[in-house]
Amino acid sequence: MVDVAALQEIRWKGEGTGFVGAKGGRYKLWWKGNDGTGGVGVMVREELVEKVLEVRRRSNGVIVVMMVFGKVIVRVISGYATQQSRKKEEKDRFYDDVSDEIGQAGLDEFVVLLGDLNGHGGADADGYEGVHGDVDMVYGMRKGVECWS
């Protein structure tokens, strides 16, 4: 059974919280969207909901769920990267939000980044076959100009 899942392109407007699934397989879902396109969410198995410390809905593309297991804090980031065709400001916001969340993590925290980071595939993936199948994981993210270290 899956304990935590990150969702992208949920296509729901606004933000909210609710339970999904049937008895014995229920999850609490936190989500944020804007206009019925894109959007992100995180689902946590019902038995683990008490472990959730905080939920931050940073944007239509980034939601963070902080959980505690004993003395360990786990920062789960669900990200939906802005597509290459969008405005630079939108792309910068996504990267800034994710980078900020990673940067805030303490040395005693685990950071789990899950999501659709909009890697690039197809005819323009020439030369990157060994990176991730036929997927260009750098060029599709900012045309290779910027990447996380």
TrEMBL record:
Pfam families recorded: Exo_endo_phos (PF03372)
Positions of the Endonuclease/exonuclease/phosphatase domain: 3-119
MF (Gene Ontology): double-stranded DNA 3'-5' DNA exonuclease activity
Gene3D superfamilies attached to this UniProt entry: Endonuclease/exonuclease/phosphatase
Any GO BP: DNA repair
PANTHER family per UniProt: EXODEOXYRIBONUCLEASE III
Protein name: Endonuclease/exonuclease/phosphatase domain-containing protein
Gene field: 20207682
